Amino acid sequence: MQWNINGRSDHDGRGYIPVDMIMGEIKEQSPDIAVLVEYYKFENDHECFTKSLEKEGFTVFCDSRKPERREKNQVLIAVSDKFDVNSGFIVKTISNKSTSKDPIPDYLQVTLSIDNQQVAIVGVRFIPRTGNIEKQLSVLKECLESTRNDKVVCLGDFNAWSSNLLNEYGALLPKNYKIETPGLYKSRQGEYKNSWGFEKKEPLNWSFVQEKKEETSKKPKRTPLDHLMTRNVEVTGIKYAGWPFLNEENGYGSLTPDDYKDVDYLPDHDILLATIQV
Question: Contact 4/46 with Cβ under 8 angstroms?
Answer without folding.
Answer: no
